[in-house]
Automatic annotation (TrEMBL):
<feature type="region of interest" description="Disordered">
    <location>
        <begin position="428"/>
        <end position="448"/>
    </location>
</feature>
<dbReference type="InterPro" id="IPR020846">
    <property type="entry name" value="MFS_dom"/>
</dbReference>
<feature type="transmembrane region" description="Helical">
    <location>
        <begin position="50"/>
        <end position="68"/>
    </location>
</feature>
<dbReference type="GO" id="GO:0005886">
    <property type="term" value="C:plasma membrane"/>
</dbReference>
<comment type="function">
    <text>May be a proton symporter involved in the uptake of osmolytes such as proline and glycine betaine.</text>
</comment>
<keyword id="KW-1003">Cell membrane</keyword>
<keyword id="KW-0769">Symport</keyword>
<comment type="similarity">
    <text>Belongs to the major facilitator superfamily. Metabolite:H+ Symporter (MHS) family (TC 2.A.1.6) family.</text>
</comment>
<feature type="domain" description="Major facilitator superfamily (MFS) profile">
    <location>
        <begin position="8"/>
        <end position="418"/>
    </location>
</feature>
<keyword id="KW-0472">Membrane</keyword>
<feature type="transmembrane region" description="Helical">
    <location>
        <begin position="80"/>
        <end position="98"/>
    </location>
</feature>
<dbReference type="InterPro" id="IPR005828">
    <property type="entry name" value="MFS_sugar_transport-like"/>
</dbReference>
<feature type="transmembrane region" description="Helical">
    <location>
        <begin position="326"/>
        <end position="346"/>
    </location>
</feature>
<feature type="transmembrane region" description="Helical">
    <location>
        <begin position="358"/>
        <end position="375"/>
    </location>
</feature>
<dbReference type="InterPro" id="IPR051084">
    <property type="entry name" value="H+-coupled_symporters"/>
</dbReference>
<feature type="transmembrane region" description="Helical">
    <location>
        <begin position="180"/>
        <end position="199"/>
    </location>
</feature>
<dbReference type="Pfam" id="PF00083">
    <property type="entry name" value="Sugar_tr"/>
</dbReference>
């Protein structure tokens, strides 16, 4: 790939990294600030309160998907990506300065809620804008590889958050972390977003977006619900294929640290280190799996994920509960994340490949955000609900069941690897019809 190609991937991914650093920092530091916004009581109940606010952010994502997806289709991918990182910076600052329960009562929790709503609005648009940008900026035979950097950057954001948590755990007392240390990562996130805002102001628009003559979407209908309705089968397909993947992903990333400390009984420092090491390996796997999908297709990887998640979730989660130490917990976590890679590495390009250019950002954003609101955002809360009810193993079966539903979709959907992004049009049975890529890729294509 040429220098300009890598530059597009870097600029698109850098903002995504900061977005997800802020998004996941909330989850990873919740064990420290849960008591700051709610009165004293049961530790699990306080975690459920913060998890509930975490889930509320997901329910704002469909709104963000609609608003920012519309911006992405009508004003360009660059405009949407710049706006999302601005909103994320503002939300991180709100959390950093939010008053505690002792100072403002439930007023602090209200500020936390507003910040999470802004984060949901931002991330709801960021996913689709990033997915479409990375997919469209790639040569046809490398779309899987290039779009895999979306989850590389997402995971890198979480790794940075966990790394900062490890540093703070080792340099600050537990009392200081619970008192004010948890505010530090949100300040870092706000500053990082400001840097990315500057980078995105000079980013290049994709050529696919600039040339939409053959996509079948009228200029006035770009980014509208009317245009999306014409592709309602593809929108439903995005919801269905996201269901199992998003539940599994949030189970083994954002919820894993809490599960290891709150259920498996590992010290918080050990649980954090397990997640940190597992996520580094997970990030490295994404481009490899994405490149594999460029060679063998998207469906084989999706089916492998769904079969593995359906059959292995219950035994992996059960053994994790009794892991007892760092190495067994790390090994089981890595096994789970290897399985999840079949979904995370290529889900961005698969969804983008379903829609024509004029409706691609909204087509990916809105149904994906709905699926995340229903399944991803509630995963942690559902897990804690099962635990609080004394039937924690019920959550393992819930994750496996979601993967089984997605498996049916993966088996029945068409392959999307060889479609021409500039000529996706119409609506087929379960997928968009498309013109296969027939011409060889030239040097000019690769440079774009």
């Amino acid at each position: 790939m040429g220098r300009e190609h890598w530059k597009k991937i870097w600029v698109g991914s850098a903002g995504n990294m900061v977005e997800w650093f802020d998004w996941f920092v909330y989850a990873s530091f919740a064990t420290y600030f849960a008591g700051a916004f709610f009165p004293e009581g049961n530790d699990t109940a306080k975690l459920m309160n913060t998890a509930g606010i975490f889930a509320v952010g997901f329910f704002m994502r469909p709104v963000g998907g609609w608003l920012l997806g519309r911006v992405g289709d009508r004003k360009g991918r660059k405009a949407a990506l710049t706006l999302t990182v601005t909103l994320m910076s503002a939300s991180a600052l709100l959390i950093a300065v939010a008053p505690t329960y002792g100072v403002a009562g439930y007023g602090g929790a209200a500020v936390l809620l507003v910040a999470r709503l802004l984060q949901g609005l931002s991330v709801g648009g960021e996913y689709a804008a990033s997915a479409t940008y990375l997919t469209e900026a790639s040569a046809p035979e490398r779309r899987g590889f290039a779009s895999s950097f979306q989850y590389v950057s997402m995971t890198a954001g979480q790794i940075l958050g966990l790394g900062l948590q490890i540093i703070l755990q080792r340099t600050m007392s537990t009392e200081a972390l619970h008192s004010w240390g948890w505010r530090i990562p949100f300040i870092v996130g706000a500053l990082g977003a400001a840097v990315v805002f500057y980078l995105r102001r000079t980013m290049l628009e994709t050529e696919v977006y600039e040339d939409t003559a053959d996509d079948g979407v009228a200029a006035g209908d770009k980014g509208t619900i009317k245009a999306l309705w014409a592709h309602k089968r593809e929108a439903l397909l995005v919801i269905a294929l996201t269901m199992g993947g998003t539940v599994a992903y949030y189970t083994y990333t954002t919820y894993l640290t809490k599960y290891l400390s709150n259920s498996a009984g590992l010290p918080k420092q050990t649980a954090t280190l397990v997640s940190f090491c597992a996520l580094i390996v997970f990030a490295c796997l994404q481009p490899l799996a994405g490149r594999l999908s460029d060679r063998i297709g998207r469906r084989p990887l999706l089916i492998t994920f769904a079969v593995g998640s359906t059959l292995l979730t219950v035994p992996i989660m059960t053994m994790l509960r009794h892991a007892g130490s760092f190495w067994p917990a790390l090994g089981l976590s890595l096994l789970a994340l290897v399985v999840v890679t079949g979904y995370t590495s290529i889900n961005a390009c698969v969804k983008a490949e379903l829609f024509p250019t004029g409706i691609r950002a909204l087509g990916v954003a809105l149904p994906y955000a709905i699926a995340n609101a229903l399944f991803g955002g509630t995963a942690e809360y559902v897990a804690l609900w099962f635990k609080d009810a004394g039937i924690e193993s019920g959550y393992y079966w819930y994750v496996a069941g979601c993967a089984a539903v997605s498996l049916i979709v993966y088996v029945s959907m068409r392959e999307t690897r060889d479609i021409d992004l500039g000529r996706v049009a119409g609506s087929g049975a379960g997928t968009a019809s498309a013109t296969p890529v027939k011409k060889p890729v030239t040097a000019a294509d690769s440079a774009s």
